[in-house]
Design brief:
By secondary structure, this protein is mainly beta. The chain has one domain: Porin, CATH 2.40.160. 10% of the residues lie in helices and 66% in strands. It contains 2 helices and 8 strands, in the order ααββββββββ. Strands 1-2-3-4-5-6-7-8 form an 8-stranded antiparallel barrel. It is elongated and about 55 Å long. It starts with a helix and ends with a strand. The model has no long low-confidence stretch (mean pLDDT 88).
Length: 182
């Protein structure tokens, strides 16, 4: 999945005209997601995966962002349950350059999450996949290595999803990651 996101981001960036390329940024990276299980004891578990994004600069410090990310956890808390998630999020990012190379950013994104390869209870029975609303808020730090390549030193965000879970259907996750920016 990570390789596919990288290839798509590079191809999109190469296909854009030179004027648009200066306003478009693509990124790919690894993400670790710490998510909660049902209420009570933490029941927390980790999902590992990747994320890719496209950002279009609207104003000097504001960009519109579209992000696709995914992760997988196997044998959650030793109960034999797996979980795969894919998020499709879009929103706004504020970034401010500190010199020529360092750029911190903050963002708010909203969209959908698709959960699959697990059990999702519903009034009509239990299903192996489900979709719900999702949003994230967070930020990170990019370091520009050259004119066209940067390193996302870190990205940290809170992710809220509402997949059915026999309790309150709320999941609160912390996502951390790093990667490359083109």
């Amino acid at each position: 999945m990570r390789k596919m996101i990288s290839v798509v981001a590079v191809l999109v960036a190469m296909a854009l005209p030179a004027v648009a390329q200066s306003r478009v940024e693509a990124g790919v990276g690894y993400q670790l997601q710490r998510s909660n299980g049902p209420t009570g004891a933490c029941g927390c578990f980790n999902l590992q995966g990747a994320r890719g994004e496209l950002a279009y600069q609207i104003f000097p410090e504001w960009s519109a962002v579209f992000e696709v990310g995914g992760g997988r956890a196997a044998n959650i808390n030793g109960q034999g349950l797996d979980l795969s998630l894919i998020t499709y999020l879009g929103g706004l990012r504020y970034s401010h350059s500190l010199g020529h190379r360092v750029r911190p950013f903050g963002q708010f994104l909203a969209g959908r999450v698709h959960g699959f390869d697990s059990l999702f209870p519903a009034s009509q029975g239990t299903f192996s996949s489900s979709n719900s609303f999702a949003f994230s808020a967070g930020g990170g730090l990019d370091y520009r290595v050259s004119k066209h390549v940067g390193i996302r030193i870190f990205q940290v965000d809170y992710l809220r999803t509402n997949l059915p879970n026999n309790e309150n259907s709320n999941q609160n996750s912390l996502r951390v990651g790093a990667g490359l920016v083109f």
